[in-house]
Amino acid sequence: MNKFNSLDKSYLEQRKIAHEICRLFAKSPSKGNLKRIKGLFFHSGESVIIEAGFHCDYGSQIHIG
What we know:
Layout: H1 9-27, H2 31-40, E1 43-44, E2 63-64
Helix pairs in contact: 1-2
């Protein structure tokens, strides 16, 4: 069984992308940036509200709604 290594190249890239999407949303919480944030999640319902300042490292384990 492989152990999780947050310094693995693929995880570093995923984290970089998630941080950039969160930064863009914090700067401008528009519908387009909300769609990007929700795209990080494993699952999100239709009427999800996410406020500016939200931050995650990957998002792929987040289930909402």
